[in-house]
Amino acid sequence: MRNRQRVASTEAQYYGFGSGSNTAIIHLQKGDIVYVYLAQGFLYENDARFRGYASFSGFRLQG
């Protein structure tokens, strides 16, 4: 998400363990906010012991 607007999305299989990933190059302006968002109810956990995880990496590219 950038400033409350979806930039990319991903999904994985419903049963078992799955993962999804994405890459985006976004031209940012001063004050832009970039973050990972998971909508409530959109993560399936087959057991209370297992948790969903999200990660984010960002790099500044100058050209």
Automatic annotation (TrEMBL):
Annotated Pfam families: C1q
Q: Which InterPro entries does this entry report, sorted A to Z?
A: C1q_dom, Tumour_necrosis_fac-like_dom
Residue intervals of the C1q domain? 1-63
Q: Which PROSITE patterns match?
A: C1Q
- Name assigned to this protein: C1q domain-containing protein
